[in-house]
Amino acid sequence: MKKLNVCLIVFAILMISVTFFTGCGTITGPDPPPPPDTTPKNISVEVKYVRIEPWYLESSEVVSLNWKYSNTQGAAVMPKISENTHAVGNIPIKTETRITMGAEDWRKRGKVRKRFFICFKGKEIELIFNGSEYGDVVFVLHNNDTIEIISPL
Q1: Where are the domains of the chain?
Q2: pTM value?
């Protein structure tokens, strides 16, 4: 009889344990965030270029923007909007795509890239990168409105 009582007690403890641990569910924490949207989207941005010293005053004020991505490339003259600042709007680019961009500044006598700003959705983000002020910059504008500098070429 004592053996039967001990077995019933052990069985009851086991059943309570099983019920408790299976009834509470598993502890996993909050749901993970959804994966980022990496679908390329066609958008238009404004690009602003600020000339940095030194420059050559005897050359003209002409600044042109060049960009390319995938099988698309374009160029546009950047009108002067203030002293040593030029900008052009409605530049078609794709998000989530590697974009190569540079400006040809006659007063700098070469292809320049320092002090580029991408303006979209009321934001103005500077393309900050190391290296020389000359050449192109390669970047990705992500759908979450962040810019990733891939390389200053």
Answers
A1: 42-152
A2: 0.73
